[in-house]
C-alpha cells in the first residue's frame, strides 16, 4: 500500500472515529475493541516481518483500528467550555476578541468573558463602532444561541452547531455596551488591531461597497452588504472574499524574495513567522489554517530537501486541524468547502488541464479554467446538500472574475502602501481600485438577474455521498487510463515499472 493510500485510509478512519465518538453512547467500547484489534494486527505484522512476509490486509486493519481508537479517545478528552447564561438582567465585563462584523443594520461582536466560559455573541447597533482588543461591560440578558437570522435556502446548515464550533456558547440581543478600555493587551489583539487600522485605511480611499470587497480579499474582513453578499452567492463567487492559499503564497514568496541572499533556513524561519502572524491577525478561519499548514509542510520539505506532495500535505493538514478540534470535522462548513475545493483542484485539475490542451489555450487561462472547473465540480454535491441551491452560471462567472482577483488584490495593497507615503497617490490608486472592483460587482450583478441564475436543488446526505463515490470512481478510472497510456507510450509494462522502482 502506497504512503498516500495509508494516509488517506488513516484519515478516513479517524473521521469515522470522530463521528462515533460524538454520536454514539458506546464509543468507549468501540475504542477498546479497536485497540485490541490493533495490538493483534501488530503482532501478526511483527511475526510476518520475521518471516519476510508482507500482509497488506494486516497493515490496513492496523491503520483503521488505531485511527478509530485515537479519534474516539481524542473526542472523549475534549472539554467544551460552558456557556455563560443569565436570564435576568446582569452586567459582565469581557474583551472583544475579533473584529466586529458590520451588517446593514447591526454589528456582531464576539466577547470573551473569561477562560472558563464560551464566548458571547453580542448583537449591537451600528454605532458606536467597537474595536478588537477593547474591554467592554455589557448589560442585559444572556441566553443560549438560537437562529436569529436564518440563511434562506440553507436547509442543512446547523447554525447553533456552527457557533459551538467557534466556541460561542451564548447570545445577547442589543444590550447596553460600555467601553471600559480601548487598550489591546495581548499580542494577538494588537495584531488584530493592526488589521482594523489597515481596513479603515482602505475604507478611506476606496469607495463603498468596493472597499468591503478589497478588505475581504486582503484580510478576510466580513462586512460585505447583505445585498452584495446575496449577489455573490447566487453567482457562485462568494469564495473570492474568503482568504485562501493565495494570500499565504504571496506572503511566503515575498519573504523568500526579499531575503534571497540569506541562508535558506533563516529565510524559511522568517517566512513561517510572517505567515503565523498573518493568521493571527486575520482571525485564523478554517481555509487560512488549511492553507497555512500546507505552506508549512511545503517549507519544511524545502528545508530538509524532500519533495513536496500536495495530496499528502492536504491530508496531513486536515488531520492536524481535526486532531486539534475534532468538532470542526462535523460542523465547520468553511473547513469542508476549503478541503473539498482544494482536493478537487489537486485530483481533478490536472485531468481538466490535459483535456483543455486540445484547444491550445494560453497557459494562464488554461490553468484558471481547469482549477475553476475542478473546484466547482468537487464542491457541487456538498453545496446541493448544505445550501440546497445551484448556480447555473457559476463556471462562466468564475472564469471572468477569478483572474481579476489578483489584480484587485494588488491594487488594494498598493493603495494601502502609498497611503503612508503620499497624500495624492492614494486618491489615484483608490479611485482606480474602486472602478476596477465596481466593474467586478457590476458583472456579478448582471449575471445574478439572468433567468435561472440560481436553482433550488436539495439532495440528501446519502445522495451527496453517492455523488462523491461516483466522482472518486471516475477519477480513479481516469488515472488508471492515464497510467496505461503513459506506459504504452514509453514501451514499458506495468510489471517492469514496479520492478524498476
Report on the structure:
The protein has 501 residues and is an alpha+beta fold. Helix 5 (187-205) runs antiparallel to helix 6, helix 5 (187-205) crosses helix 16 (405-419) and helix 8 runs antiparallel to helix 9 (264-282). It has three domains: 3-76; 86-185, OB fold (Dihydrolipoamide Acetyltransferase, E2P); 231-459, no CATH class. Strands 1, 2, 3, 4, 5, 6 and 7 form a seven-stranded mixed sheet that branches. A two-stranded antiparallel ribbon has the order 8-9. It is globular and about 75 Å long. Residues 150-154 and 492-501 have low confidence and may be disordered. Strand 2 (101-102) and strand 3 form a beta hairpin. The chain is 63% helix and 10% strand.
Identify the notable features of this structure and list them briefly.
single chain; 501 residues; OB fold (Dihydrolipoamide Acetyltransferase, E2P); 3 domains; two-stranded antiparallel ribbon; disordered C terminus
How many beta-strand elements?
A: 9
The Cα radius of gyration reads 25 Å
Strand content: 5-15%
Number of domains: 3
**Helix/strand order:** HHHEEEEEHEEHHHHHHHHHHEHHHEHH
Question: What is the makeup of the main sheet?
Answer: 7 strands, mixed
Helix percentage range:
55-70%
Q: pLDDT below 50 for ≥5 consecutive residues: which ranges?
A: 150-154, 492-501
Which class do the helix and strand fractions yield? Answer: alpha+beta
Task: Describe the structure concisely for a colleague.
The chain is of the alpha+beta class. The chain is 63% helix and 10% strand.
Amino acid at each position: 500500500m502506497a504512503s498516500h493510500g495509508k494516509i488517506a485510509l488513516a484519515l478516513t478512519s479517524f473521521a469515522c472515529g470522530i463521528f462515533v465518538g460524538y454520536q454514539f453512547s458506546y464509543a468507549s467500547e468501540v475504542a477498546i475493541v479497536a485497540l485490541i484489534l490493533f495490538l493483534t494486527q501488530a503482532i501478526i505484522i511483527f511475526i510476518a516481518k520475521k518471516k519476510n512476509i508482507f500482509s497488506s490486509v494486516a497493515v490496513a486493519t492496523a491503520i483503521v483500528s488505531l485511527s478509530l481508537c485515537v479519534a474516539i479517545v481524542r473526542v472523549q478528552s475534549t472539554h467544551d467550555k460552558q456557556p455563560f447564561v443569565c436570564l435576568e438582567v446582569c452586567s459582565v465585563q469581557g474583551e472583544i476578541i475579533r473584529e466586529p462584523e458590520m451588517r446593514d443594520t447591526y454589528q456582531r461582536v464576539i466577547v470573551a468573558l473569561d477562560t472558563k466560559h464560551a464566548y458571547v455573541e453580542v448583537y449591537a447597533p451600528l454605532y458606536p463602532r467597537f474595536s478588537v482588543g477593547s474591554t467592554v461591560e455589557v448589560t442585559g440578558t444572556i441566553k443560549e444561541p438560537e437562529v436569529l437570522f436564518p440563511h434562506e435556502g440553507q436547509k442543512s446548515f446547523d447554525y447553533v452547531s456552527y457557533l459551538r464550533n467557534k466556541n460561542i456558547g451564548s447570545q445577547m440581543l442589543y444590550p447596553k455596551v460600555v467601553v471600559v478600555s480601548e487598550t489591546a493587551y495581548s499580542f494577538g489583539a494588537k495584531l488584530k488591531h493592526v488589521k482594523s487600522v489597515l481596513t479603515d485605511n482602505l475604507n478611506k480611499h476606496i469607495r463603498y461597497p468596493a472597499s468591503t470587497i478589497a478588505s475581504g480579499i486582503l484580510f478576510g474582513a466580513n462586512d460585505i452588504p447583505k445585498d452584495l453578499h446575496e449577489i455573490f452567492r447566487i453567482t457562485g463567487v462568494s469564495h473570492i472574499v474568503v482568504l485562501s492559499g493565495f494570500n499565504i503564497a504571496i506572503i511566503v514568496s515575498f519573504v523568500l524574495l526579499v531575503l534571497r541572499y540569506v541562508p535558506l533556513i533563516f529565510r524559511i524561519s522568517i517566512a513561517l513567522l510572517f505567515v503565523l502572524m498573518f493568521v493571527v491577525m486575520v482571525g485564523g478561519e478554517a481555509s487560512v489554517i488549511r492553507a497555512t499548514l500546507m505552506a508549512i509542510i511545503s517549507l519544511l520539505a524545502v528545508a530538509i530537501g524532500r519533495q513536496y506532495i500536495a495530496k499528502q500535505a492536504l491530508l496531513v493538514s486536515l488531520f492536524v486541524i481535526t486532531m486539534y478540534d475534532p468538532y470542526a470535522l462535523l460542523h465547520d462548513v468553511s473547513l469542508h468547502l476549503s478541503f473539498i475545493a482544494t482536493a478537487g483542484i489537486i485530483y481533478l485539475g490536472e485531468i481538466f488541464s490535459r483535456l483543455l490542451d486540445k484547444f491550445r489555450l494560453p497557459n494562464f487561462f488554461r490553468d484558471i479554467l481547469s482549477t475553476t472547473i475542478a473546484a466547482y465540480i468537487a464542491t457541487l454535491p456538498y453545496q446541493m446538500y448544505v445550501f440546497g441551491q445551484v448556480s447555473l452560471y457559476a463556471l462562466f462567472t468564475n472564469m471572468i472574475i477569478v483572474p481579476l482577483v489578483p489584480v484587485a488584490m494588488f491594487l488594494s495593497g498598493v493603495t494601502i502602501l502609498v497611503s503612508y507615503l503620499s497624500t495624492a497617490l492614494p486618491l489615484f490608486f483608490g479611485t482606480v481600485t474602486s472602478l476596477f472592483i465596481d466593474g467586478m460587482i457590476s458583472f456579478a450583478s448582471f449575471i445574478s438577474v439572468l433567468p435561472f441564475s440560481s436553482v433550488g436543488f436539495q439532495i440528501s446526505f446519502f445522495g451527496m455521498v453517492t455523488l462523491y463515490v461516483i466522482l472518486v470512481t471516475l477519477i480513479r478510472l481516469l488515472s488508471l487510463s492515464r497510467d496505461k497510456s503513459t506506459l504504452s507510450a514509453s514501451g514499458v509494462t506495468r510489471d517492469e515499472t514496479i520492478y524498476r522502482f
